[in-house]
Structures
1.
Amino acid sequence: MRGAAALAALEAARKPARYLPPGAIVYHQEEPDDVAFNLISGWAMLTQSLPDGRRQVLRFLLPGAVFGPTPQGQALHGSAAEALTPAVLCVIPREGMTALRRHWPEFDDRLMWCIERDAELAAGLLTSIGQRTAIERVAYLLVELAMRALRRFPLRNGDTVALPLTQTVIAEATGLTAVHVNRMLRELRQRQVAIFLQRRLTVLDAAALLALASLPPELPALWTGTSPFSFA
Amino acid sequence: MRGAAALAALEAARKPARYLPPGAIVYHQEEPDDVAFNLISGWAMLTQSLPDGRRQVLRFLLPGAVFGPTPQGQALHGSAAEALTPAVLCVIPREGMTALRRHWPEFDDRLMWCIERDAELAAGLLTSIGQRTAIERVAYLLVELAMRALRRFPLRNGDTVALPLTQTVIAEATGLTAVHVNRMLRELRQRQVAIFLQRRLTVLDAAALLALASLPPELPALWTGTSPFSFA
DNA sequence: CGGTTCATTGATCGTGGTCAACTCGAGTGG
DNA sequence: CCACTCGAGTTGACCACGATCAATGAACCG
């Protein structure tokens, strides 16, 4: 809370909020870009598609996420954004962003923090897909999203979280097929590690799940941490 | 070139440059962080390792790259940086970065541009590893690095570039094994698409190579483009 | 020289993809 | 009210892409 003036400036810069149903597209890949979004509530995801239709989930967006702006001077989005649940977005034109950054250093710091954090999230996913086996990838994704949703580390036995993902989406995020994701979820269930059914995750054996995810030690803090900048 | 004053400020903020031989580690994963680096000359890479030693290349750094700063408030690096060639680094402490950002908006813009661009590079790699087959991944990586090194699109038949990569490094960047990378390079050679030997790439059939890489249309501009901000 | 590291190739194996069939709801329209 | 579709999930059978294991050669270097 850096004061009423800052908040007023933000209010002045933003356009009306957007309300989206699940599955709605915020923007398409290759669409021209000139606004930034702030996810107020709900979940969303960024995806990148190849010309032949194969699709990769780049990252999942939880409330508070900032997304949309492309490197300035680049005209087109390199990814698409899609709502996973009913979602509310705050929309800020690029000029508004620039003005806010210039006048409110804390806003600028926070924005940069968000972007750097998102890069680290993507890095973790990259390592997961490049180096882990199928069951490890699924375990990693479930752990990441559970911790981000719960904002807590470590996970405890019995923890339950709603994760608004279909098995197809998990497949697109892990680089597996939906069929194989199904098999891996069944295995986690049969091994009494975790249950993911009807878009709810229940952790049965947190230690086993974390062992499968084999996290680098610095990631949990990143997932559960909040911005050190209090603006907005 | 935003003027002598800005350059002088940068000079004042930076520490002595670092000169590194190939293979030198700039910083380790989980090392505390409080400086940013600017790669003056040479190539380097960022990697992330799992507890059991598996390693993923997150991105390749070419001259001009900015790297090192972690999201503020996070103590530890989530990745390691390693020189691939003899390299010269400009070292700027975090306080210096903050001061420069505050006083020179163009510096701030350029920094944010670099970070956003790097995120897009990582996104492309993520899609590649998640969705492409082995030979496509190798083709994609070669195309990306060739275009970034040449700063030109499209590639032409006969183009030759030095890429300071061992097959092991290509393997770590593509999520394949070094043995399989070797087979894919042989196949590219036998199919008369491209030759990669002794760390030099020669493009024989640019159209075929690009078809294998199946690039989303917005990426080439990103690879060959330079920052719209002229500071420093 | 022995000792690296890097590249190369063959043989074999297994993880994960592909194909196919089926269930189970939640719409939707006759 | 029931047939119909559509998407999500489930399971089995089969196969192939890429991993693994192993051996060898070339270049470089103390």
2.
Amino acid sequence: MSANGRAEMKKSRPLRADAGENLVRSLEQLKAVFVERGVDASLEEIAKRSSVGIGTLYRHFPSRAKLLAAASDEQLATVARKEAELDGLDSRLEALHLFLKELVKRTGMYHGLAAALNTVLNSDAPGCKAATDLGKRLLKGAQDASEVRSDIKFEDVVSLVGAVSLSPQKGARDPARINRMLEVIIEGLRPIQR
Amino acid sequence: MSANGRAEMKKSRPLRADAGENLVRSLEQLKAVFVERGVDASLEEIAKRSSVGIGTLYRHFPSRAKLLAAASDEQLATVARKEAELDGLDSRLEALHLFLKELVKRTGMYHGLAAALNTVLNSDAPGCKAATDLGKRLLKGAQDASEVRSDIKFEDVVSLVGAVSLSPQKGARDPARINRMLEVIIEGLRPIQR
DNA sequence: ACCTGAACACCGTTCAAGT
DNA sequence: ACCTGAACACCGTTCAAGT
């Protein structure tokens, strides 16, 4: 019945290409597929679920990385919105810690995204850029305050955080594990005392 | 010339199935392919290069994980052979540090293996088992000596080490990066002072 | 100008047939 | 008992044809 209705609409109104509306709908489905299937979801399924031809999908997102960046952009914008709160903290290391916690939290729903986190953060989508800018600034601040060793690169931290969300044996989202591993990373970032 | 010779041998001696010799030859080629192509190398190519039918490959190694374990077993046995040396050290944390360094070193030649390191270490191949046993014992020792926080699991450490060999932007094997990231992990493992 | 999906290539996996 | 590779299924990617 409902399927019949959709078919009729498609026939009577030949899919007037409202690019904006169309893309938004695609993004919603895109995210849903990534949530259900993980970041290795088949492009075929994404296209089908997004009601878009596979060719159109490729034109909008020439690589899987672009797709991941688009799907993650909103979540990363949310991370970036923590800026004021984090800037208000006393400890720069604590600010970085909370940033990383938020990053893992907002990034965990796409299974396997962690492995591609550096790539996604380096994309030019606005949310990705904002989160990366904030993260780099927090790291720099902690280093200037001598709370983090000066030789560490932002990419090092992101790679380590990626490992956190990598499940040990496939499955099992273990919050305790995430917490203790983030603690290890944060404590390990401190300058070595001699 | 040499190719011709091989072809003749194959014809005159119809590949007498010396399973042992055959498997060893396969393993050599298997490792070569993983070195050249990374751990996602196509099974087709592995079979072809190993002069084995794809079906035979599947019978010997029903999953890619088994293949990875077989290819890594010798390297991991080498890691395990550090046992005496590491047991002789004063600091249990330093022993663990050197173990992890060795692990990264012997594991780095297969691009992408890091991500599957926990799986490989958990396989029942002898070298994998030996390396895992040693690693777990070293961690336990460091914890008993209060040099490592007691809530850490061996799998946590391996996951973090996996991140180390994960290149940030594809390519670039950077020894300095490996060293500082391993240092971050080791320092971060220390019990938190309060 | 934009969209579509058939068509091609490549790879994983199984299994009937061969020795 | 062991090996083989054709056959099938599935997925990524391109591009000629359609609107």
3.
Amino acid sequence: MVTEPVRRVPADESSHRLVRDMVLDRSSPVPLYFQVAQHLEAAILDGRLQPGTRFDNEVLVAEQLGLSRPTMRRAMQYLVDKGVLVRRRGIGTRVVQPKVRRPLGLSSLYEDLAASGQHPSTQVLSLSVEPASAVVAQALALPVETPVTVVVRLRSAADQPIARMANYLPHTVLTGIGDGLTESALEAYGLYQLIRGLGIQLHAADQTIGARSATAEEGRLLGERRGAALLTMQRTAYDDHGRAVEYGSHIYAASRYSFELSMLAG
Amino acid sequence: MVTEPVRRVPADESSHRLVRDMVLDRSSPVPLYFQVAQHLEAAILDGRLQPGTRFDNEVLVAEQLGLSRPTMRRAMQYLVDKGVLVRRRGIGTRVVQPKVRRPLGLSSLYEDLAASGQHPSTQVLSLSVEPASAVVAQALALPVETPVTVVVRLRSAADQPIARMANYLPHTVLTGIGDGLTESALEAYGLYQLIRGLGIQLHAADQTIGARSATAEEGRLLGERRGAALLTMQRTAYDDHGRAVEYGSHIYAASRYSFELSMLAG
DNA sequence: CAGTGGTCTAGACCACACC
DNA sequence: GTGTGGTCTAGACCACTGT
């Protein structure tokens, strides 16, 4: 028996064009699902796919792109995890807000400032080896009095002091490089950049953000009055094996700096 | 030709026992990959799987559990994303640190305090409808002067004031419930709990954390001296469709509160 | 070289939402 | 019902790591 072709509920026209014109390189080392995800994300960010746009169902889209369904699913799931798409069983897949999310992952103040074109500069106030205090030892899971490398830096942007940062590194981290950690290197690069350059994979970090009043000396250093509000942040960073790699205790001039976080629901 | 059976590099004994004893319920609505992930995570958290333990390769483990490789992969990938496992091509899969990660997702101060057994209490200082100021309008993406519901609360724990929280809700969010947002409800539950109870899916949030000095009035309210350091936090929360659902501007007594964040590398 | 995880395919069945 | 995403399977080939 002959019937009319099924009248599919159409997805938005814009997604049709986009999918039709998408070019994938099967010989590239970049995975197909990632190529697809990048194309889609770019289209969302530059407005070719507006928020609210609905996709065809994943089987169809996969077909149109010449991909298997699992591969297409993976591309979409990647964007869902990134917060760019929303999917609901029985409903469909839609584009959400193209908001630029800056998850503040394991970045450093230096990288943050550099990325926003603030021309950061660093002055190393001290670089030494000292026995670990109780707090430092606790944070790095070392016995008290274990020698650790201590670097104190003053971070500025646009010739204004922003933060005083004290970092503590266990010597196990520095074996094999020894003097890779020089004053000049520390003034040219962020600490995290140097650590990663040493082949250490940063994996996770615990942070505490608080506030207190500046002492007279801290005020002088940061160009604030005594008693001015300071932001404080303590951070312990861990590598793949769960070993504490770095502990930092930092103060920020609250009048010139704040933390911004974007997060997805959990 | 007959050869000796291949001498496999063995994984740790503890993982063998665990996998052998794992029971899966194929008739459960809980997905298999999730059941597996939960079993493994529980074993890691309670120490049956120590940090550093190495798994057999995923094909073997899948076999031992009577699962397909993709399903097993999915369970492991879930734990990798959660930061509990680390995988490296050519190397293997290992357990990392069982650190309790508290991602501080879209939780509220109320939920944080309640979870840590602090017996929080709330006092509604005001509940009204007011025209949106410039900042509020900007944060909620509304025209200036649009009427919004404003609730100001004082949050305490252990009879000590902790925070003053001002929240602004567009009326589009409240349609259909109207008076679900009462003073008594606000004093008994967290605001986010109430919003979720209204069937609204929280999706993402942008936050800014800063610090400043307390005014005399703020000091009185929070039991601090004038000029004491305050933590400040502004947050805009969005739903699935990217619509701003809530804006909050809060101050915290820094001597009694700080933010803790755990994060994975990105 | 052997062993590992990373990617991809082609299909199947199920649970949920809306009409 | 019909259409959607969610789960699961059985296999294949590839890329990277170490010996």
4.
Amino acid sequence: MINEEVANIFERVGRVLSYKGKDRFRALAYERAARSLRGLEGDLTTMAKAGTLCDIPGIGHDLSEMIDEYIDTHHIRRCEKELSTIPQSLIDLMDIPGLGPKTLLLLHKKFHIEDFEGFKRLLDSGSLLKLRGFGEKKIENLRRGIKLWLASKQRLPLGVALPIAERLLADVQKIKGVERADLAGSIRRRRETIGDLDMLVISNNSARVLREFTKLKPVDEVLSLGETRATVILEGGLQVDVRAVARQSYGAALQYFTGSKDHNVHLRTLAHAKGLKINEYGVFRGKKRLRGASESAFYRLVGVPLMPPELREDRGEIEAAIEGRLPTLIEVDHLRGDLHAHTLYSDGRSSLAEMVERAGTLGYEYIAITDHSPAARIAHGLDRRRLEDKVEEIERLRSRRGKRRPRIVHGAEVDILSDGRLDYPQDILSQLDIVVASVHSSFRQSPDRMTGRLLNAMANPFVHVLAHPTTRLIGSRAPIDFDFERVVEAAVKNRVALEINGQPYRLDLTDTLARAAKEAGALFAINSDAHSASQLQDIRYGVFQARRGWIESASVINAWTWAKLRRWLRKPMKR
DNA sequence: GCCGTTTTCGGCCCGACTGTTTTCAGTCG
């Protein structure tokens, strides 16, 4: 997919333009286009062929021509010309908090700063102090910016940030005088990674509440503290913004600070067309505030039904809401079981009995135990003999448990070998209740080979689920390269469900791929891929990702009753 | 550079906070 490549170019051009400061709206247009491409579900090359590039929000006449040019030549001459006017290492510095285009321009002109090393030397040299507008505090702030920047180069996965956020929220709710507190921002939208936390509180004494907040235990450093806003850094480096809001503005503020930015801009345009003005304080006609106490009232006034935060990315959800075709999203409670979990037999850290027991406390109707196949040597994949031992233990456990839930489903996570064959022979596969197939090696095959490999695997009649289809690891491993459309097509045809894996560093499929697969009619399995009993709960991150992919419970096979799932697992048409 | 049921031109969010000023500029969200 070239989406990311083009997005990167547009983002950099946007930064160069804002650095030059000539036309900030042109800069905004490039930045918005970059964000829009990153959130796109379809492939740019395909869209260009179909002539639908201009349907992408933020892409118009000029940018669509540039995308065409990139597809043809791998270059965009106008962008390259713009980029060549400024050293790229200088543009990278804009990521440093507190260092904006104006300051950067000044430092470049006065001190010929071109990269990070130069910037750091300048800070240490003390010559900045002589500059008008620069004092001790400002320089200290820039130093802190560097620290933050180095620490936050990787955003935190949702699965790491959300537990921190939930604990902090509970602490805030206990502060005296807090009437209500909520998470907002990207963590409320359940984005797969989180840059910082946004929180809102209602209180009749906000200054005191904010002061108390900055004294909470996990707070390491206070960056700013005012009457309505406080910004702190937690131990571990996560930044938190808390805003205190009046009760009558709470809905408007919650909407505003939940975003996304593009969703809000779109909403504001709609409001504007109706002669309304919206901001974090409410909906206004002229100077008169209409209402803003609840989020749903806020949306209603603008003429848009309320929608779940996970959808608010300006990816067509506003249009869908107006036309009454919002999806009814899957919820954690809809899941009746988990179809991907490991035990001590392979690389899990809990026993089979412990996993089953914990699955029971989660209210599951069924739990599939899917240890690795032999090719996964490091993970102690099971050969035929150890697989037989495991079957025996499952049988013993089944008879001991009688009719108690959950039902134990005997499965395996079977490696897809480099040519697309599976790592167990057909006679073993045929004995398993469920086969979860996945790639764990040879990640760098050509797109053609990789596509063929996956198609081969899915053509095997015993395969039920394609697990973590892209095999990416957030922050450490790129997704494998294959023709996603063809693979989805084969999944639909062969009745293979695509997994949405809930492990915090996987979240695979991604939101946009899941949505594309849904549009193509695919089925899904939302799984924990738990390697310990406590990790069974990570399945909720898979559900969040699925919700961001517009997925409804009807197309999630582990939201089905056991009776229905069992029929599907048998796949009579294939045998 | 995008966008359009007030517009094909003229908008495009603007309020809070900080720091260095003495009335404001820069940054952020």
